[in-house]
Amino acid sequence: VQLVESGGGSVQAGGSLRVSCAAFGYTRSFSCMGWFREFPGKDREGVATIDVDGVTSYADSVKGRFTISQDNAKNTLYLQMNSLKPEDTAMYYCAARWGGALGSWCRVETGYKYWGQGTQVTVSS
Description:
Layout: E1 2-6, E2 9-12, E3 17-24, E4 32-38, E5 44-51, E6 56-58, E7 66-71, E8 76-81, E9 90-97, E10 114-115, E11 119-124
Parallel strand pairs: 2-11
Antiparallel strand pairs: 1-3, 3-8, 4-5, 4-9, 5-6, 7-8, 9-10, 9-11
């Protein structure tokens, strides 16, 4: 399994970005897929996830601003980020796993076996 992110970049506060994650090399739906972000010196935070039943879960800090979606025909996961803030600046990673609890439990980093290489999102004030 390979996950390849794209679409990060730099934007001013209030702007929007969409990051994408193309998945390769699998034949059955993942239990959970999602986006995590990492701030320097801190653990990764589960930003937004979606499970095999289509249930989404968001970190409180991004609710109402970020939207996770997937295109099964293209095997691609998206994260639309609107009203970006400087505190959203981080490295964003796509991740996927099979097994484990679903729903909001998808935002727990433990158990994810597959990770992308990350894409940097920088929001300037």
